[in-house]
Design goal:
alpha/beta; six-stranded parallel beta sheet
């Protein structure tokens, strides 16, 4: 029995909503393009409840001890300089070895034509298998971070899909494998906002805000982490902006902010495209999928108090690429938002974000684009 030609196994992880959101959108697009895709959660593959324990431990760190994650990231995740041997990118931790064994059994049962990973531990596991000749089909890594850290990189993987040309160049320098920039995997609703006047009226009626309030979305990710309460206080204290904090699924944070009322505190929302169509700007702290959705919606992004590790590195990478503004403190935050009242400054940021969507789509690259003839991964 041979693998299906356009059958793709997408390996994600339920660590927040970003990895799963990208995986689900990729699967939807592959199906629409005539392919077949299945999304699996790497954490669910791990035995003895290890996946759930890892998720809870990471969530606790980000909420209660972000300094600990910063330390772990600095020691284990920071990528080696390009001059070092490419094998330094491989990370054969016990977790990676265990994940690789489970992934190997899953692939043997599903027999896909390709494996695509959207989570860094999954990328290490697939790279380990492919590099050792234990994975017979191509392995593609779809990076969900603008900043490249070690755990995304394994020279055993065949190829990489990256969020920007700079990221692609760095990946190739570190791994020696082909890398290309692909357009962000955001839902179609963000690029096709509803009719402006009707959408604005409905959103403002639901939120109970005045027609002249200048809404600034403050993103805390799906887990509701980071110093978003401070950001809300700064915005509300200026008298110029009404903060609307997106607390994700952190109901405790939503209740705490709603009691203080430095603005509005919202839980998980299904109407984010309409919210973005009505907002003045997005203040973000993670450089993840919400930023890509803002780029799609034409909403300028300001990074403020990013979460440690990949969040901070991603925010700085976006700012260096001209996609966002990084604000170092309260005054910088308000100054960055004030500058967006200048049509030229606003248009510059919006155009930079929109330009990302001119890159080839991930589904086109996977289903016969530039990567169709990529060489096999080296075996060790």
């Amino acid at each position: 029995m041979t693998p299906a030609r356009h059958s793709v196994l997408i390996v994600s992880a339920s660590m927040g909503a970003g990895h799963d959101g990208v995986a689900a959108e990729l699967a939807r697009r592959l199906a629409a393009a005539g392919g077949a895709a299945e999304v699996v959660d790497l954490l669910e593959l791990l035995p003895l409840g290890l996946g759930g324990g890892l998720r809870r431990w990471y969530g606790w760190m980000m909420r209660s001890a972000p300094w600990l994650y910063a330390l772990i990231y600095r020691v284990f995740f920071a990528p080696p300089p390009p001059r070092r041997h490419r094998r330094a990118c491989a990370w054969d931790s016990p977790l990676t070895v265990l994940a690789a064994a489970r992934l190997r059994r899953l692939v043997a049962g599903r027999r896909p034509g390709e494996v695509v990973t959207t989570f860094h531990v999954a990328a290490q596991a697939a790279g380990r298998l492919r590099g050792r000749g234990l994975l017979a089909v191509p392995s593609t890594v779809l990076l969900t971070d603008f900043a490249v850290h070690r755990m995304w990189l394994h020279p055993g993987n065949d190829r990489y899909l990256c969020p920007s040309p700079a990221t692609a160049r760095r990946v190739t320098a570190l791994t020696g494998r082909p890398a290309a920039c692909c357009a962000p995997l955001t839902g179609p609703a963000f690029r096709r906002p509803p009719a402006a006047r009707a959408a604005v009226r409905r959103v403002r009626e639901r939120l109970g805000v005045r027609p002249d309030d200048r809404l600034v979305l403050v993103s805390a990710g799906s887990w509701g982490v980071g110093e978003v309460a401070e950001a809300a206080r700064v915005l509300a204290g200026s008298g110029r902006y009404l903060p609307v904090v997106l607390c994700g699924r952190n109901e405790r944070l939503r209740r705490r902010l709603a009691a203080v009322r430095p603005g509005l505190a919202l839980g998980w929302r299904d109407d984010l495209p309409a919210l973005m169509a009505d907002a003045y700007a997005l203040v973000d702290n993670a450089a993840g999928l919400t930023c890509r959705e803002a780029f799609a919606a034409g909403l300028p992004v300001v990074s403020y108090r990013p979460i440690p590790g990949h969040g901070r590195d991603g925010a700085l990478a976006m700012a260096r690429a001209g996609l966002s503004v990084h604000a170092g403190g309260p005054r910088d935050l308000l100054a960055a938002l004030d500058r967006l009242a200048d049509p030229a400054e606003r248009a510059r940021l919006v155009a930079a974000g929109a330009a990302l969507f001119a890159a080839p789509s991930a589904e086109a690259l996977l289903l016969g684009g530039a990567f169709a003839a990529a060489p096999s991964a080296p075996q060790s």
